[in-house]
Structure formats: structure tokens, C-alpha cells
Amino acid sequence: MKRLALPAFLLSFAIPFCSIAQEASNDAPAQLSQADIQEQNKYSNPNFIEDSAQSVEEWAETVRESFGLEDWGEKDGKFFIFASRPVTLPSTDPQFGVSLSNAFDQVMTDIQEKLCFLHYGKLVLGKARGFMEDNSTNNRDLPPLEATPQSMGKVQALLDKTLDVASAKLDAELVKLGVDPGKVQTMTVKQKKVFFYEHFIKDTLKKASGDISGIFPMQTTVKIDAKGSAHIGVVAIQSLKTMQVAKDISMQRASLIQGKGQNLKEYLPKDVTHMLGDLGPRLVYDQDGTPVIVAFAVSSFVPDSNDPFINSRMRETAKSNCIDLADGMIAEVVNGQMSAEKRLQTGEEIDRFIEKEVKPDAMAFEKNIKNIVKISKNRSQTRASMDLQGISSLMPPKAFKLPNGQQMFCTVRCWKYSTLRTVKAFNENNFDRPSPQTPKDKQPAAKPGSFDGRKFNTLEDF
């Protein structure tokens, strides 16, 4: 059997390749440091969050797709709004819990503003433009100095003290003689002559005022990245049905709106630590199908005293604050009113001028200044009022700790028709223990993720 001979040109490639392979086999395998291994493990962790803001945006897209929405806004007579906001303090700060609660309130205010402008917004637009150009041969000649109160004040100060000093030492001498240093700094007189300017300003003003009831969060999330920065995101909805429920509750009348309900205890979190992902009011339905508003709220306190009495009082205050926050959420959903205003000024300013200080041997300087104008001002006020009859605790305040050790309290409050009927009957001395309701088939509760809010509803609920 004959052996096949390789052509010469293939041998010329094979020999160097073999030598390279031999050298590679002689080299020691690459070693990974422990820091490299930890870095790789960190990025391989599915719970790792590199950027909290980006993570909230990705979460919002997932929620939008889960509800079958193509975009935020109006669909089939329902308004879907998303808003997010960074938490001011990092997750390692002892007052992170307070900052987180404030961030949620601000996110809800952003959502309310968006819907308020959608329903009641008015826009006023104004534009202003100015132009001047001086091409005279003496356009850079400064005019004679005129006597002004500023310049005369400096001369008067000199005459009063009868002091003759050099201009370079004037301010220091005036201070020594008792003249206010703040006034001395403003005594430097300057001459200025503008020979070109062009200004353009656009002023946009939006105003809205009206009813913001019936706005319910659908899902909430809190994302904390590896640097400790936290972001909170909320997806909310408003529809004719939610507004009707809010109106019925506000008037304490029976609602024609019915839904598929379950035992309200099913809405309680199995782990109170995950309450952060459920912040806000939710529209659910009781076992008898009547609407119920369930509000999840948290508060925190920082024990900063060695006195047990003071720390105990701080704990009780934090519990009370938690209840008040939840009740406020319910009131805002039932009968909220908002007045909002946004002002935006944009434009450009171009100025060319000659400027010179009025003192011996001072030089005149030509200045060319270009400014971009962008000024934003937002202002909003929200008011809500309602009768507290019908509100009760679904879960009393419970203590828990965040991963970084902050002391927190959480509570779940609810407004329901059965409580309203009981309170009214008691107040009218006609108390009759309500007959027990036959429980209906329970819907399976969605499992909460790590600080990601549970999905309580389908679109049919709204």
C-alpha cells in the first residue's frame, strides 16, 4: 500500500503550524485570579443589577408586554401610565426607608400629573425676539462717564473720610475706615456699551386642574444596583370603571361594578420583606364581588438614642405613620384633586459689548457672550378628603429589616363595603353581625419576585 506524499507547498504550511502548536502545548495554562472569579460570578448571578435605572426600564417593558400593550397611553378607553424615579439616599443609608417612601409618593405624583394634563391640560405659548446691530465707526467708543448714585457714593465716601489714597488701595482703606465690605465690592464702576445683541425666548406654559380619582397602580418595583443606588417604578391605570368605583366609594353608595373576587387574606405578602414591591393602592374584589381598595404602605425609624422609652415612642410613631400613609393613599384614589403647572423657557442670547472699569489705566475689553436658555419649573398641588368609615387593617403594622439592616414597618389597609355596612349599623345602634359569606373558588396568587410587585389584576378588573 502506497503512502500519499504531501505536496511541498502543504508541508511548508504544516511545519510552522506544528511548531506553533508545540510551543502552545509547552506554555502553562492561563491562571484566573480570585478577583476575576468573583467578578465573573457576580455577572453570572441572575439577581445582579448593574444599573438600577436601566433595570426598571426593562421591568416596565416586561410588564407592558404581559398586559398586551403596544405602548403607554390610551387603549380601549383605559389609560396606562409608567413613571420612575431614583431614590435620593443609597440603600446603605439608615434613612433609606423614609427616602424610598418619599420616592414612591413622587412617582405617583408624576403619574397623576401626566393624567391630569391628558384630561384637563391647556397650553399657552409665547415667543419673543430682539435684535440690535451697531455698525457705526465709533461703535466701540465708550460714552463719557455719567454721574450715577453708585459712582457718587464712592466719591462721597472719600470726601467724608477726607482721605486721598491711590486707586489700587481705595477699597482696603475704605474698609479700614468703617465702610461695609459688601458695599465696597459693589463700588467698582464699570462702563459698558452693547453694539450687537440677538435674543430669542420661547415660553411654554401648561396648566391643568381637575379630578385625579381612580388612578390605581397595577404593579410596582424597587431595583437596587451593586452601587447601592435604588430606583422605583410604577405602572398605573385609570379607566371609566375605576373612576366609577372611586365615585361610589366617595358617596358611600353601593356600586354596580362587580368583579371576580377572593379572600382578601390571599393578597397579603407571604414575606413582608417583599412589601417594597407592592407599595401603593390596589383595586381588588371581595368574595362577594364588591370592589375593595387595598393599600400597602411602609415606614421606617432610626433608633438614635440609648433611652428605651424614646426608642419605644419612635417605634409607635413609625407604626402610626405607616397607617396614615396607607389611609392617605386610599383617600387620594377615592377623591383626589390636582392643580398642576409646567413652565419651560428655551432660547438663545447673543451679546457683544465693550466693558471697562472706571479707574486709572484700566483697559477696555470686548466680550462676546452666547447663552443657551433652558429653564424648567414644575408646580403641583394635590388635595384629597374622604370619610374614614369603611377603612380597616387587613394586616396590622409589622416590623422587618431590609438587607442592610434598616428598621422598617409595613401595613396593609383596606376599604370595603362590608366594613362600611358594619360601621353604619353600629353608629345607628342597629348592629347585626353579618352573615358569613360562602367563599368562592380562589384565584391563584402570583408569586412575588425580589422587590418586584405581584400582579393582582387582569385588564378585565379595570
What does this structure look like?
By secondary structure, the chain is an alpha+beta fold. It has a domain at 47-125 and 205-342 and 381-435. The protein is built from 10 helices and 12 strands. It has helices at residues 8-26, 34-44, 52-66, 96-120, 149-161, 170-176, 181-185, 240-250, 308-335, 417-427; strands at residues 73-75, 78-86, 122-133, 190-211, 216-224, 230-238, 280-285, 291-301, 336-357, 364-384, 391-401, 407-416. It is elongated.
Helix and strand layout, with pairings?
Layout: H1 8-26, H2 34-44, H3 52-66, E1 73-75, E2 78-86, H4 96-120, E3 122-133, H5 149-161, H6 170-176, H7 181-185, E4 190-211, E5 216-224, E6 230-238, H8 240-250, E7 280-285, E8 291-301, H9 308-335, E9 336-357, E10 364-384, E11 391-401, E12 407-416, H10 417-427
Antiparallel strand pairs: 1-2, 2-6, 3-4, 4-9, 5-6, 7-8, 8-12, 9-10, 11-12
H and E order: HHHEEHEHHHEEEHEEHEEEEH
* Low-confidence residue ranges: 1-29, 36-48, 158-168, 438-450
List how many beta strands DSSP finds: 12
Q: Roughly what fraction of the amino acids lie in strands? A: 25-35%
Helix content: 25-40%
Number of helices: 10
Strand order of the largest sheet: 1-2-6-5
CA-atom Rg in angstroms: 35 Å
In whole angstroms, how far apart are the ends? 85 Å
Shape: elongated
The computed structural class is alpha+beta
Described by strand count, sense and barrel closure, the largest sheet is: 4 strands, antiparallel
Mean pLDDT score, rounded? 77
